[in-house]
C-alpha cells in the first residue's frame, strides 16, 4: 500500500505537470490563437508527450478553456488582494489602478487571450469569457465598487458617481496601451519603452491623487506612498502580435467603415 508521502509526492508531480502544460498553452494560444495553436508544440514546450497532455485535458478546446481559467484566476487573486489590503479606501483604489496598469504591461498572455475572447463575444460566437464573468470579473467589480463607496462615504474621495472614478483610472490605462502604436508614429517615441512606461504610471497615479481625493495634499501623500511601495515590475517578455482572429475582425471592421 502506498504511503501518504508517496501519494502526496505523486499528486505534487501531477500538479506540476499540469501547471507546465497550462503555462505552455497560455503562451501558444496567446501568440497563435485557438485555431493556430498546435497541441504538439504545447506538449513539447511543456516537456511532456502528447498522450500525457490528453490525459490531463481531453482536447484542444478543453485545454484552451483551462488555460484561460488558470491565468484569469491568477489575475483575480492578485487584484482582490490589492483591494482587500490594510489601507484606506483611497489608497487601495490607487494601488488597484497601478496594479491594473502593470498587469497590462506585463501579463501579455492574459491580455491576448482576453482580446481573442472579446472578438468572439463581439461576433456572438461561443466563447470562454462569459463563464469568467461570474467567477472573476463580477466579484472584482463588486469589491472595487465597495472600496469606492467606502471612500466616498468616509469623505476621503470626491462625491461623484463611482463609475466616473473607475473609468477615469482604468479607462486611461487601457487607452494608453491601445493608442501606443499610433502615438509612436505621431510623436516619434515609443510609449511602450520602459522609461516611458515608468513615467506614465507615475503621472497617472499622481493625477489620480489630485483628481479623486477631496484633500489634495492627502491625495498627493497617498499617491507618493503607493508609488514608493509598488516598484514597476520587470517586463512581461515579447509582446505577441495580434492573433489571426483579431486581425480578421480588424479587416472586417475596416471594410464596413
Task: Walk me through what this model shows.
The chain is mostly helical and 257 residues long. The chain has one domain: Tetracycline Repressor, domain 2, CATH 1.10.357.10. Helix content is 78%, strand content 0%. The chain has helices at residues 4-36, 39-46, 50-56, 60-83, 89-106, 108-123, 129-154, 162-178, 180-187, 194-211, 216-229, 244-255. Helix 1 runs antiparallel to helix 2, helix 4 crosses helix 6 and helix 5 (89-106) runs antiparallel to helix 7 (129-154). The termini are far apart.
The H-and-E topology, N to C, reads as HHHHHHHHHHHH
Classify the beta-strand content into a percent band.
under 5%
The CATH topology annotation reads as: Tetracycline Repressor, domain 2
CATH architecture: Orthogonal Bundle
Structural class: mainly alpha
Q: Round the mean pLDDT to the nearest integer and report it.
A: 88
Strand count: 0
Low-pLDDT stretches: 237-257
How large is the count of helical segments? 12
General form: globular
Using only C-alpha atoms, the radius of gyration works out to: 21 Å
The assembly state of the depicted protein chains is single chain
Whole-number total of structural domains? 1
Q: N- to C-terminal separation?
A: 69 Å
* Biggest beta sheet attributes: none
Say which CATH homologous superfamily is assigned.
Tetracycline Repressor, domain 2
- Helix percent band: over 70%
Amino acid at each position: 500500500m502506498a504511503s501518504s508521502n508517496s501519494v502526496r509526492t505523486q499528486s505534487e508531480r501531477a500538479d506540476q505537470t499540469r501547471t507546465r502544460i497550462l503555462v505552455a498553452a497560455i503562451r501558444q494560444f496567446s501568440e497563435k490563437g485557438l485555431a493556430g495553436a498546435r497541441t504538439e508544440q504545447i506538449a513539447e514546450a511543456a516537456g511532456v508527450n502528447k498522450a500525457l497532455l490528453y490525459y490531463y485535458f481531453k482536447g484542444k478546446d478543453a485545454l484552451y478553456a483551462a488555460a484561460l481559467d488558470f491565468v484569469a484566476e491568477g489575475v483575480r487573486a492578485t487584484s482582490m488582494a490589492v483591494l482587500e489590503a490594510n489601507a484606506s479606501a483611497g489608497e487601495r483604489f490607487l494601488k488597484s489602478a497601478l496594479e491594473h496598469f502593470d498587469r497590462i504591461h506585463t501579463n501579455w498572455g492574459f491580455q491576448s487571450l482576453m482580446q481573442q475572447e472579446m472578438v468572439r463575444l463581439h461576433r456572438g460566437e461561443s466563447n470562454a469569457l462569459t463563464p469568467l464573468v461570474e467567477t472573476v470579473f463580477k466579484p472584482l467589480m463588486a469589491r472595487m465598487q465597495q472600496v469606492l463607496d467606502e471612500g466616498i462615504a468616509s469623505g476621503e474621495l470626491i462625491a461623484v458617481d463611482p463609475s466616473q472614478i473607475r473609468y477615469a483610472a482604468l479607462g486611461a490605462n487601457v487607452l494608453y496601451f491601445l493608442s501606443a502604436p499610433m502615438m509612436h508614429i505621431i510623436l516619434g517615441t515609443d510609449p511602450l519603452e520602459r522609461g516611458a512606461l515608468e513615467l506614465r504610471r507615475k503621472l497617472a497615479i499622481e493625477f489620480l491623487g489630485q483628481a479623486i481625493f477631496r484633500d489634495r495634499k492627502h491625495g498627493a501623500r497617498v499617491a507618493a506612498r503607493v508609488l514608493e511601495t509598488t516598484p514597476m515590475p520587470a517586463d512581461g517578455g515579447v509582446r505577441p502580435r495580434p492573433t489571426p482572429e483579431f486581425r480578421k475582425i480588424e479587416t472586417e471592421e475596416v471594410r464596413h467603415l
